[in-house]
């Protein structure tokens, strides 16, 4: 039973990671290359910085910690960047990072999902790390979507085109 629960947990986390990637991809499609490094205010982050930050966070938590590899993150550099990485390079970097994180999560054992470890001074189980990555990824996906809507003066980015979101729940 424990293995089935672990497998379901992993698949649900991966689904959430894929959803964030899909939504960022739809936002990216609507942004011009000049938009990637624009900031809403001087104290805000550009989409480019947010992508670098997401790659750093996903690598530190999901790939390094869950994969038991050396943590080489340089977090401050993610926010200091003001260009130098193209829109296509950022998109590829994000996709590659998420794929590596998914592979890492799929390959860890149930005991590794339960084992506690320290990341950024916090102590989490493998489950806690996977949840952190999902919620952190989702949070910044929302920021990217919001900034894309502002830049393009849109109310809808097409995340759910073709899906009726008014369908009621079925109780079996």
TrEMBL record:
Gene3D superfamilies: dinb family like domain (1.20.120.450). It holds the Pfam family DUF1572. InterPro entries: DinB/YfiT-like, DUF1572. This is Uncharacterized damage-inducible protein DinB (Forms a four-helix bundle). It comes from Aquimarina spongiae.
């Amino acid at each position: 039973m424990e293995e089935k629960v672990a497998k379901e947990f992993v698949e649900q986390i991966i689904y959430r990671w894929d959803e964030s990637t899909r939504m960022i991809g739809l936002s990216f499609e609507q942004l011009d290359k000049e938009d990637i490094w624009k900031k809403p205010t001087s104290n805000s982050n550009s989409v480019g910085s947010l992508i670098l930050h997401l790659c750093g966070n996903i690598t530190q938590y999901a790939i390094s910690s869950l994969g038991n590899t050396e943590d080489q993150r340089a977090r401050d550099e993610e926010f200091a960047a003001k260009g130098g990485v193209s829109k296509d390079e950022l998109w590829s970097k994000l996709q590659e990072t998420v794929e590596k994180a998914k592979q890492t999560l799929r390959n860890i054992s149930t005991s590794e999902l339960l084992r506690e470890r320290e990341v950024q001074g916090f102590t989490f189980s493998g489950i806690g790390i996977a949840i952190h990555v999902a919620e952190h990824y989702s949070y910044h996906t929302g920021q990217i979507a919001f900034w894309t809507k502002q830049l393009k003066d849109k109310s809808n980015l097409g995340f759910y085109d073709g899906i009726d979101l008014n369908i009621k729940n079925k109780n079996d």
